[in-house]
Write a structure and sequence with these properties.
Strand order of the largest sheet of chain A: 1-2-3-5-4
Structural class of chain A: alpha/beta
Structural class of chain B: mainly alpha
Shape of chain B: globular
Distance between the termini of chain A: 99 Å
Radius of gyration of chain B: 17 Å
Radius of gyration of chain A: 32 Å
Order of helices and strands of chain A: HHHHHHHHEEEHEEEHHE
Number of helices of chain B: 9
Order of helices and strands of chain B: HHHHHHHHH
Distance between the termini of chain B: 36 Å
Oligomer: heterodimer
Strand content of chain B: under 5%
Shape of chain A: rod-shaped
Largest sheet of chain B: none
Helix content of chain A: 40-55%
Chain lengths: ~290, ~190
């Protein structure tokens, strides 16, 4: 037997122990806590869980909206590599919020009455599934866009809305990218004025535009223009040679009527010959729906 | 062991009765006082005054929380959980660690434990109380607590899961790890 360093007496509680406990209950006026307290304690994790699921689903919906509208189609034009594209367009704030909420969901499930019985892997799958399914439903209901536009600007030090981000990417004349509102169109698109999202008004030459681009120009209010800068506001002018015009909206391209007698693929001017990758831009143009 | 006045009634029924009649609670105390007293000592509380204090607090806590008893659990699992938590609170309040381990099992029981722990063949030493106590003292508390429940208190995995609030799979994994650590400790000079 191990030496007892504390001079222990018998391990058994005293014979009248039960009476002592009852006396103490009497003296200290101990009473069983009311049922409602346990009801609240048992159900609070479920309430918090539900709240976390709603917040997580909103973050997931905003994340999905940001990914869906990151401009994948134009990646080759806006970025030199996948890495730079992902770094610039990934919705880090929503991803962080999503991860934090999934962690909170897991913690809340663990604190339910029988939550401790499930292994971490099961809780992780449940947490991810719950928030992602909720997120998909929210996204389908258009909540992702609203969250991004209404709550996103509050995190403006880190990242602004998807719309702001895309506008910023496409206000890059040095890279040959402009986007904004078509203010006026002359000669069926041979010249037009474009007010970019930063407020600058550009005089754009559209002589090189093919039928599809001209159709977009005359029927769509907000457009993306790929071309070559002729002079920039820094140099005292704002003129641009346009080579391709696409609708600004990405998700649901509208049906754009084609003019009946137009050159479908004019010869390119010297400026537009330098616009790359030409095959990609042609293919991209064919993805939008046009009507004869 | 104190004589039970209501041997044919289940613990769960006594809980229901104790909510209406405080005296019925005495029966639960009589049923569990010795088992829990041993369990408290096995978790490392040495002094008999401390054991009794912790035990009294356990029963007061049980009484206070009678309405929260979850009938999907066995009462014994629930009261063991409260006891485990109370002992941990005791150590926290004293800013103390378990004071050591006392193995007061009979030789026969010790042999059974040795067999259950699968250490009888590999270990050169004859397993005696001192060696086992010293090895337990060196074990990580999470492994020690789970071994105490499994091999000294003879609780099933599902009960240990409910007492320590761990998934059953984790209970199995931790018991295996604990046995391996204990085996290593018993195989090396202590």
């Amino acid at each position: 037997m191990q030496t007892d360093p504390h001079n222990m007496s018998s391990p058994r509680p005293s014979d009248n122990f039960a009476e002592k406990v009852l006396e103490r209950i009497q003296e200290e006026r101990v009473v069983p806590r009311p049922r409602w307290q346990f009801f609240v304690r048992e159900n609070l994790p479920w309430v918090l869980l539900l709240a976390c699921l709603v917040i997580g689903a909103a973050a997931a919906a905003a994340m999905m909206f940001a990914f869906a509208n990151a401009g994948w189609k134009f990646r080759v034009l806006t970025h030199d590599s996948w890495l730079s594209f992902l770094i610039e367009t990934a919705p880090f704030v929503w991803i962080l919020i999503f991860i934090a909420v999934v962690a909170a969901v897991i913690e809340n499930i663990r604190h339910t009455k029988t939550g401790y019985r499930y292994p971490f892997s099961t809780l992780l799958v449940l947490g991810l599934l719950g928030t992602l399914v909720g997120g998909a439903l929210f996204y389908a209901a258009g909540i992702g866009k609203r969250v991004d536009e209404e709550i996103g600007p509050r995190f403006h030090l880190v990242r602004r809305t998807v719309a702001f981000q895309q506008q910023h990417l496409w206000t890059n004349p040095v890279r040959g990218l402009l986007a904004g509102e078509v203010v006026a169109v002359e000669d069926g698109g041979a010249r037009f004025r474009l007010r970019t999202f930063d407020g600058t008004e550009w005089m754009v030459n559209g002589e090189d535009l093919n039928a599809q681009s001209r159709a977009v120009l005359t029927h769509v209010r907000f457009v993306r223009v790929v071309g070559v800068p002729l002079s920039t506001p820094d140099a005292g002018g704002a003129t641009f040679q346009s080579c391709f015009v696409f609708p600004w909206e990405l998700i649901e391209p509208m049906r754009i009527p084609l003019p009946s007698a137009t050159n479908s693929d004019p010869l390119r001017t010297t400026e537009c010959e330098g616009v790359r990758p030409y095959a990609f831009l042609k293919k991209l143009q064919s993805e939008f729906r046009y009507e004869e | 062991m104190p004589e039970s006045f209501l041997p044919e009634i289940t613990d769960e029924d006594i809980v229901a009765r104790a909510l209406e009649q405080k005296e019925a609670f005495g029966e639960l105390v009589r049923r569990y006082q010795e088992k829990l007293s041993r369990y408290i000592r096995r978790l490392g509380v040495f002094r008999s005054e401390d054991v009794e204090d912790v035990l009294q607090n356990v029963f007061l806590s049980v009484y206070r929380n009678l309405n929260g008893f979850d009938r999907s659990l066995r009462f014994s699992s629930w009261i063991y959980r409260i006891t485990h938590n109370e002992v941990m609170s005791f150590f926290r309040s004293r800013q103390a660690r378990p004071e050591g381990y006392v193995i007061d099992e009979s030789e026969e029981r010790l042999t059974e434990i040795q067999s259950s722990l699968s250490v009888e063949r590999e270990v050169e030493h004859v397993l005696n109380r001192d060696l086992l106590a010293a090895a337990l003292a060196k074990l990580d508390p999470k492994y020690r607590d789970i071994l105490v429940l499994r091999f000294f208190e003879e609780r099933e995995y599902a009960e240990i899961s409910d007492i320590l609030k761990l998934p059953i799979g984790t209970v199995g994994t931790q018991i295996n790890r604990a046995k391996k650590r204990l085996h290593d400790l018993l195989s090396s000079p202590l």
